[in-house]
Write a structure and sequence with these properties.
With 200 residues, the protein is of the alpha+beta class. It is built from six helices and ten strands, in the order αβββααβββααββββα. The chain is globular and about 45 Å long. It starts with a helix and ends with a helix. The relative contact order is 0.14.
Length: 200
C-alpha cells in the first residue's frame, strides 16, 4: 500500500472531524496552553480563560520521526508517520470509547511527544508496546511491535487498562489504517447524532 493511499485514508477521517468541529465551533481549550500560532482569532470565547484553536499543517520532519523511533526503540509504521506529518492539533478524540491521540504542537514537538509517552510505565516499551493515544480515561492505545524489526510493517493496535496495571492487551485493529477505517464509521454516526441534537 502506497504512502499516498495511507495518507488519503487518514486525511479523510481527520479532515472530517475538524470540518465538523469548525461547524459547531468545538475546538476550545485552556488559553494559556494554546500556542499563539494555533489560536483561532476568528471566534471570541465567552470565557477569557478559554480560547478557540485551529489545527496547523505539520512541521514534523523525517529527522524528528527518526529520533522518536530511537526513543521508542522501534520503527514506526509508515501509516502512523503519515498521520504525524499531516497536522498539528491540541485535541483529536475519535471513536467510542474515546481514543485521544497525543497532543501535537509545533513548538518542541519531539519533547512533547516524549512527555506523553513517559507518562505511562516504561515496562510498556520494554514489552514492545508503543503508546500513541489515551484510551478514554482509563487506558492507553499502543502499537504491539513485539520484536518485529521490518521497517515497513504496520503493527496491530491494542489497548491496555490501568486497572490491571497495563498487563492485559486487548485488540483494537490489525493496523493503523484499519483503526481509521473503524473510526470513520463511528465518526459518521457521531456527527449525525450531534447534528440531530443541535437541530432539535
Amino acid at each position: 500500500m502506497s504512502r499516498q493511499h495511507l495518507f488519503g485514508i487518514i486525511k479523510q477521517v481527520v479532515d472530517k472531524y475538524f470540518d465538523f468541529m469548525e461547524e459547531i465551533r468545538g475546538n476550545q481549550y485552556i488559553a494559556e496552553e494554546v500556542p499563539d500560532a494555533m489560536t483561532d482569532h476568528r471566534h471570541l470565547p465567552d470565557d477569557e480563560e478559554i480560547t478557540y484553536w485551529k489545527p496547523l499543517p505539520s512541521t514534523v520532519t523525517d529527522t524528528q520521526l527518526y529520533l522518536l523511533e530511537e526513543f521508542l526503540g522501534s520503527q514506526l509504521p509508515p501509516s502512523y508517520k503519515a498521520f504525524l506529518q499531516y497536522l498539528h492539533f491540541i485535541e483529536l478524540p475519535l471513536g467510542l470509547p474515546r481514543i485521544s491521540f497525543f497532543k501535537s504542537i509545533p513548538d518542541d514537538w519531539l519533547d512533547s511527544m516524549k512527555e506523553w509517552i513517559i507518562g505511562y510505565p516504561a515496562e510498556l516499551m520494554d514489552h514492545g508496546y508503543l503508546p500513541i493515544a489515551d484510551y478514554s480515561d482509563y487506558g492507553v492505545v499502543c502499537f504491539d511491535s513485539h520484536g518485529t524489526t521490518q521497517p515497513d510493517v504496520d503493527y496491530p493496535l491494542v489497548w491496555l487498562d490501568h486497572e490491571d496495571n497495563y498487563t492485559k492487551p486487548r485488540p483494537l485493529a490489525a493496523n493503523f489504517v484499519e483503526l481509521f477505517e473503524k473510526l470513520d464509521v463511528q465518526l459518521d454516526k457521531w456527527i449525525i447524532r450531534k447534528r440531530a441534537e443541535r437541530d432539535n
